[in-house]
Amino acid sequence: MIHHAAQVDVMTSLQDPIQDGTINILGSLNLFREAFLVGVKKVIYASSAAVYGDPGATQPLPLSEEIPIYPLSPYGISKYTPEHYLRIAATAAEANYAILRYANVYGPRQNATGEGGVVAIFSHLISQQQPVTIYGDGEQTRDFIYVGDVARANLAALQVKENGTFNISTGQRISVNQLLALLQEIAGAHTACRYLPLRSGEILHSALDPQKAKEKLGWEAQTNFSQGLRQTYDYFLQLVLEEGA
Q1: Residue 116: pLDDT band by 50, 70, 90 thresholds?
Q2: Other C-beta atoms within 10 Å of 181: how many?
Q3: Cα 25-142-58 angle, rounded to 5 deg
């Protein structure tokens, strides 16, 4: 079983941490309990880079799975807590488990509003020739992982009996300003951009070390960032063309 269901928006978790915890913690606990009651033999849990918080000032990047955990938002807490419930429940059921801590996932069909990631939001706006907004100075960095690589990681985790926690990432950092410049180059257009103050709970720098996933799961990212960006932008551009047809 692969468990991806969640409340995934950091700002929503800050505004309503009770709802966030109810969905992500209690929802996951219920799912794990029912899964093992009916005899599920392996559970893959989609966790998040948000569990690490922002230890870049004290820990070298990219981050390994072994560093101290210190989330900056209720969302980070609510993604981390089920990791422990899963480990205990799987051990009691004599089942296997894998916790996959995703970096910033992007790709075609991602939601471009509300809970959408920055790649989807920028791609949507640029394809419609609309201005974009950056919170902070744009020099904050993220480890962007293409959705196709994430799908392969889940399949790899299902096929091995190795229990544990694994970063699903590239280990590389891209700034938000670099992301915007690359998308503008792909689109062949300059997009107006406004900068607003950094939002509460936002991580400044994030990159995860994928070495353990490579060694234990036989997985590593294969999609070049520029290639993945082009596929994502082309998806949103096609939506614009279809709407205008």
Answers
A1: low
A2: 14
A3: 80
Q: Which two tokens stand for residue 189?
A: 């257009």
Please tell me the predicted confidence (pLDDT) of residue 245: 54
103 neighbors 50 (Cβ within 8 angstroms): no
- Domains for the chain: give ranges and CATH numbers: 2-244 (3.40.50.720)
Peptide bond into 62 cis (omega under 30): yes
Q: Is 209 left (phi over 0), alpha (psi -120 to 50) or beta?
A: beta
Average pLDDT, the chain: 94
d(CA 12, CA 92): 33
Closest CA to 133 of 191, 90, 183, 71: 191
| Residue partners of 231: CB distance under 8 A and separation at least 6 | 107, 108
Given the residues 45, 75, 80, 146, select the one marked as catalytic.
Answer: 75
Query: pTM, whole model, 2 decimals?
Result: 0.94
Please name the helix (run of DSSP H) or strand (run of DSSP E) that holds residue 219, with its range, or none.
Answer: none
235 catalytically annotated: no
